[in-house]
Write a structure and sequence with these properties.
Length: about 375
């Protein structure tokens, strides 16, 4: 899972943003970036790879300003490049996003037709353009975000920064967690309490559909129908826990709710969402159009994955599939023509998990 942090501070925030992102490294990421406001002027630095690459950029080209947002990205839409790294921005707004905007394609087409120019392959960039579109039509930042949220389908946590508004951050959550942190004359946004633990242990977790308008004086939280709501202010006990439960009651509930995002990230390695094509991790040494039958043998979780593959191959490729528990497969003496072997190791602590994909031509 990727990370979000936002700071309305009383001193330059670039270093603090990077420190907070370092605390989120445990969630996994492929690129990172920050945007700050210096006397109303918005600027950003982004880098592919580890946070160290971003730090090097910030040494070469420092960012001033007491207001900022930061992000560690784990790509779902678009390659892990600097251009696709967050924050995504127009001249009016910068946004960081965890999760997936499912209807990004239709929104992107609509905005392009209206004259917006896109610079990345991500789903996230539509959010920046949509908010800008509403602001150009006269809405305030808060009203533009409220209108934008109603158009987004999918799972997301978002943090917004607005050019010319040094005392404003807006956060929103649907599906992915987001917390508001309270400091002394400072306010924060974070995808979990761990990111905010160097700054504050006093938090409110946004609930499903909530969005929050932060100034240095405090926060106003609204629900999905834009009604003002109160959310409990809690003391976080992150110092005693390595991993944060967010506002879930149990870690198990948290993991269940994270599944759509984790599956999205995993598939993103193989699917190019923008061009809607699949990139296989290895070039297969045969012509799929000549394959008449597929035999999969696997154990444990891989066996269940194979069952899903059977449904998909049969339904979409009209290719008949058989699947065996790997330990039984060798005793069956199944006639195979071509064999592709892959094995993978989950972790050093666990026994190796191997799977075989056996493809054969019908005789
Ligand atoms: N879907 C967004 C992207 O691919 C956000 C990914 C994330 O959660 O880091 O840029």
């Amino acid at each position: 899972m990727c990370g979000i942090v936002g700071i309305l501070g009383s001193a330059p925030v670039a270093g603090q943003l990077v420190d907070a992102l370092k605390r989120l490294e445990y969630r996994g990421y492929d690129s990172a970036g920050i945007a700050t406001l210096d006397h109303g002027v918005m600027a950003r630095r982004r880098a592919e790879g580890k946070l160290h690459a971003l730090e090097i950029k910030l040494v070469a080209e420092p960012l001033g300003g007491n207001t900022g947002i930061g992000h560690t990205r784990w790509a779902t839409h678009g390659r892990p490049t600097e251009l696709n790294a967050h924050p995504h921005a127009t001249d009016r707004v910068a946004v960081v996003h965890n999760g997936i905007i499912e209807n990004f394609r239709e929104l992107r087409e609509r905005l392009i037709a209206a004259g917006h120019k896109f610079n990345s392959e991500t789903d996230t960039e539509v959010v920046a353009h949509l908010v800008t579109d509403y602001m150009t039509k006269g809405k305030s930042p808060a009203d533009a975000v409220a209108a934008t949220l109603k158009e987004l389908r999918g799972a997301f946590a978002l943090a917004f920064l607005f050019a010319g508004h040094d005392d404003l951050l807006i956060g929103a959550r649907k599906g992915s967690p987001l917390a508001v942190g309270y400091g002394k004359g400072e306010m924060y946004l974070g995808s979990d309490a761990i990111a905010l633990s160097p700054f504050t242990d006093t938090l409110s977790y946004l609930e499903e559909g909530d969005w929050a308008v932060l100034t240095r004086k405090g926060v106003k939280i609204y629900d999905a129908q834009d009604r003002p709501v109160e959310r409990a202010i809690e003391k976080s006990s992150v110092s005693t826990h390595l991993v944060d439960k967010g506002n879930h009651k149990h870690f198990m509930a948290k993991e269940i709710h994270e599944q759509p995002e984790v599956v999205g990230h995993t598939l993103a390695h193989y699917i190019d969402m923008v061009s809607e094509t699949v990139d296989l991790p290895v070039a297969l040494p045969f012509d799929w159009s000549k394959i008449k039958r597929l035999s999969i043998s696997a154990c444990g979780t891989a066996f269940y994955a194979g069952l899903v593959a059977k449904y998909w191959f049969e339904r979409f490729a009209k290719l008949s599939v058989e699947i065996d528990i790997a330990s039984e497969f060798r005793y069956r003496g199944a006639p195979l023509e071509a064999v592709i072997w892959r094995s993978s190791f989950r972790s050093r602590a666990r026994p190796p998990i191997r799977w075989r994909l056996c493809a054969m031509r019908a005789r």
